[in-house]
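Minutes, methods subgroup
Present: GH (chair), OT, SY

1. OT presented the first of two proteins processed in the latest run. Sequence and structure tokens recorded below as shown on screen.
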Amino acid sequence: MAKTKREIATRALRRIGVVAQDEAATAEQYAVAEEALVALYAELNASHGFTMTFGPDAVPDDYFLPMAYLLAVEIAPDFTRPAPERRNTALLRLRGADHVYVRDMDFDEDGVTTEDEIDTFDRGAYF
């Protein structure tokens, strides 16, 4: 089931320690996080080569944690908290959800990735 801006904001606020597990964020905290999420979503589509087919109010489960973790990095300074990880790390986590490398291994493009194709990919990646 798709996640909402509120769910992503809550996860990000918990990741940076602004909100405890057993409490809800304030309206001001949600406003800061949700505003940053909308801006971040626009930046990802415009500047980072993401072509997301969903909006920030209906984020698929595969993208939930990567989006929340990237949002946590973005909003941490707003709450005078250290970022939980580097921005590049968070972007790579999101890119991993957006471009699952297994898709690149299907060399004959029949929709099935075989063990031989995985081995071939691994040998090519090694060299």
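2. SY then presented the second protein from the same run.
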Amino acid sequence: MNNNKKKETYIKAKRGKTTVFVECNFNETVGTIKKRLADIVEQEENKIALLKDSSVSEASASSPYIALNDSQILSHTGIPHEGIIYYVYLDENQKWEEVNIPKPDLSQEQEDDDEEEDDEAED
């Protein structure tokens, strides 16, 4: 068995309602992945920051996210195969925007399901 074979996978990069699937290898740096993402979203690399969910041991009162350093090797970040990272942009005031991932509105789905059941009952 060849142990030098790269472990190919993908990670999901999320921003707002957008999810980008980025192919990667776990021996690549975060900077390499950020460059690939920047090409996909057509944004300047230096105007993107990558973050991950903080674990319980790393939890911070100020943020549930931890910025990833460009020099980190992906396998050392704790992000699993097919894991999720978040990306944010540098705004016009040179400040990083907040991670903003909208929660799905399940109440609307429930109302739609209820209406379908009512329609079926009338038939």
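Chair's summary of item 2: Residues 106-122 form the longest helix (17 residues).
Next meeting: continue with the remaining queue.
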